[in-house]
Amino acid sequence: MDDKLNILLITGIVTSEHDPKMVPMIRFLLQSTGRFNVKVTEEFTGATAETLAKYDAVLVNYDGKLDVETPFVGWGANAEQALYDYVANGGGAVMYHSSIIKNAHAFPDAYVKLAGCDFDFAAGGRKTPKLEMVVDVDTEAHEITQGSPKHWMTAQEDFFVNMKWLPDVPVTVLATIRDELSDYEPDKIQPHRRYEFENQDLSALPGMGDDVPVAWTHGFGKGRVFSVSIGHGPDTLKRPAFAGLLCRATEWAASGNVTIPYPDLAGLNRQRAWPYYLDMTITQYADITSF
Predict the structure, then answer these.
(1) Is the pTM of this model over 0.90?
(2) pLDDT for res 110
(3) Residue ranges of the alpha helices (H) in the chain?
(4) Distance (Å, rounded) from C-alpha 222 to C-alpha 131?
């Protein structure tokens, strides 16, 4: 009997700066643990309660914009309501990276509560100019983070700051980064983004100098939700601490339990396939993957 957890990875439209390899990599990562079956849909429009009934959790990697400047494309009121009802009735959800952005969803209040925060670029949300940053993990906050390194570095990342937290959606913060004024010095900002921070008092930007949550859990009706605002590209996804965080959080959202260990890089595991060490070498793994 197959006792694996069934996950529906909802994707389709993600802004063009996101590497298209992310979806197959996330799917491979989850399935490499031996704990999950993962199906992928690139067209959630038309989804119903029946569509979702066979799954233990959904993983949403969708921001509805082909490019930063293009209009948002939603799934339609019926499909979005089916998602909210599914989670509220006890389904699990993982809200991945840019999927936490509010944009213009048909039911913005419900979507914001599903994400656990109101993050809207049009209302003061911003992306820091820094690409690499130390992630500070609260290893005592939740069973998901037990056994995690307390500090680790991202790579080529997006950092969303100045979220608005909802008084009626209490969250448990698992990991944070620090939004530092020194990261906004002109020579540290990519040239194409310098205009965003010109002619203003950067020290007065909302949230400057704060510890900013990048991973948290919360409830949505009877459902369990894990939201993570980092995970922009393959470089961070392949960090063992992030891989473990995502897999353990997905297991928790789907089942309420956490059994998957954080990856162990000791000994012969250094020579085995990333990230959950299938019975093959790194070279054999490279031969069968296209990403």
Answers:
(1) yes
(2) 95
(3) 22-32, 49-52, 77-88, 108-115, 234-237, 240-255, 282-288
(4) 36
